[in-house]
Amino acid sequence: MKNHHPDRGYIIRLSATMTVMLGLMLSINIYEVVAQTPRQEVQMRIMAQTAGTNGPMTVRSDSGSLRTLTVVGGQIFRITLQSVGASACQMNSPFVGGVPTNWTSEVNPGERLYPAPGGKTIIKFACTNMVQSAQDSVVISRQ
Q1: Which residue, among 133, 135, 134, 131, has the nearest Cα to 9 in the 3D structure?
Q2: Among 77, 89, 127, 142, fewest CB within 10 Å belongs to which?
Q3: Beta bridge mates, 108
Q4: Low-confidence spans in the chain with pLDDT less than 70
């Protein structure tokens, strides 16, 4: 017998076994709670921001479309990942590694995410809740 509660994120399985042993009837009930991942949609947004002479410049990702933030050599930028409904996230480019579901990092010249002069770095993230997933990217371009 199953008691299904997808809105609460679990399933209860019930089973009963009857055994005859030396003329006695025994009844054993086993109750098992099985965790189930809620079917919540995964949403994410990536932001890249730098301070410029005319104030901060911010680029936000829109699912599926690349946005570009241009930095001048030596300029520090900040990359932020925000997700909702995700249990795990990872950076997929320019290198692969797990990151928290809400993450911010300041990127200095010479670090792995900082583009080479005249080049660009595509920063890709993916998040999942083990049922659904989302992925998005931003481009950092260096003058």
Answers
A1: 131
A2: 142
A3: none
A4: 1-39, 51-58, 60-66
Which of 46, 86, 82 has its CA nearest to residue 67? 46
DSSP structural state of residue 36: -
Dihedral of the alpha carbons of 44, 103, 121, 69, in degrees to the nearest 10: 70
Which residues neighbour 61 within 8 Å (Cβ) at sequence distance 6 or greater? 45, 46, 47, 67, 136, 137, 138
Could you tell me which of 35, 137, 139 has the C-alpha nearest to residue 87?
35
Domains within the chain, CATH numbers bracketed:
2-35 (no CATH), 43-142 (2.60.40)
Tokens read off for 41: 């949609």
> What pLDDT sits at residue 46?
85
Give pLDDT, residue 25.
54
**Which contiguous run of DSSP H or E holds residue 136?**
strand 133-142
Q: Kindly state the tokens that stand for 24.
A: 């006695």
